[in-house]
């Protein structure tokens, strides 16, 4: 790609995919913040609800949520993305999220955020675009040229964040027997801890189909970086990649990872598809014509804002002074009356004014129709009418020339505008060289991670025997710490043999209620599935840290304490009067295909192996000394 940088830099394409990627990334971040808020006592308290070490966590999560909303809607894009990046860094590196509650996609989200800082994410579907328009006089929507960006804004993030991730992951997969057997997608989906509520047995019980999927994933990940930018191959990689990550989202309980990866595929959709979808969604002709006073700055700002929100192009805006005479419904009104309200005429020639005009506009926009219907409710309509009249009857009118600004000039610039546009236009050769060096450095950082973990670690090469290799290994480690922390570059060795080898027992918790009946804690159910909402990073805590192929009693007892304290409080249990029972089930995680393995694991019996009892906010856990021998 480096030799083609000048040509790719000059090639302009629609900004639609970039804007949708920003929205998808913001929504994934927002759902994760909501998840953290719900589980904040489980994740951040040393003892949930009893020992609250970080009482201000909810406040900072709310602030982060506001930032994520700003990212989603594209408001003050650069500041919002930088703040979001810092929130990810702080929460991932300085809270228990890093050690005990790894979400499996935190570093990926940090890397994506880093690239978004230098992408023109505000060029489409953003409030910053509206702010930019508000700094100039209003023109009809057809006069606003569609925003375009360099095609590199699509290719670079996909190459780094997806291409290298896939290639690194594929190298690790070659060392896993079940992946070499074509069962990479099958094995996790037969383990009770990892599956969602959907029963995928119809797929899991077809050996050849499962092996086809497994080998397809390997080929896809090895070749993605070399073929995704090819015009003819892009649809293939798009469909296969979306199918893989949609499957992860639906069939496994690590849905945040699946959603985060799916967000990137908005950048892989062919540009012709966005154009076709746009033509299909947009109205063939406006269904409502709105008339405004062109000499009213407030009217100009209002109409421009409404025009910006009319993404399906259903509304036409015309100034009343020049166009009202062409419409019979308006011709009968006096010039004075015509300028006192915002009027609208629909396709049947019906006339609307004031609040009714706003209601019609919102309904005709389609996506804001609920707000338009709410505005028609009797009480709300009355209050809105009073407020409307108070504003409309006191608004100022001025003689506005073509150079009149309806708002202060928009002066904010993003990193993309400063460097990718500004420097590229003034010094294209120098910029191309600089960009090439930056991309080369990122590639080397990724290769360092892949070689360190994917080759040296997997082949168990001893680097300490030679002084030179020892120094190189230490230097590699130091670089890895920085690249992993700030760029999200990390090994992608997920669900390999070193994770499932020996994973033949799982643990659940029950309790005796006030009536003396044994109940399952709403955490792990009778089948062994982790119940919603205990998915994502809570699943990672229990299935990847508390319960592993070699169970550590100290670690398990710590998380039994956290889970019983959290869910005991959520259920309203009196901890000091409740006895919790620790249950163990034997399961299988074979490297060869077994018919109906998922239901065999579901049906395996539970055996009580211990108990947990709280006394004065202190828990006593009674477990066998060596659970691994059971």
From TrEMBL:
Q: What is its main location?
A: membrane
Q: How does it sit in the membrane?
A: Multi-pass membrane protein
Identify the domain of life: Bacteria
- Name one molecular function that GO assigns to this entry: protein-disulfide reductase activity
GO CC terms in record: endomembrane system
Q: Where is the HTTM-like domain?
A: 10-273
Keyword Methyltransferase attributed: no
Q: Which InterPro entries match?
A: DCC1-like, HTTM-like, Sporulation_signal_mat
Q: Which Pfam families match?
A: DCC1-like
Q: Where is this protein localized, as stated in its record?
A: Endomembrane system
Q: What's in the keyword line of the UniProt record? A: Membrane, Transmembrane, Transmembrane helix
Membrane among keywords = yes
Give me the segments passing through the membrane: 20-44, 56-75, 82-98, 104-122, 143-167, 212-229, 236-265
Q: Which named protein is this?
A: HTTM-like domain-containing protein
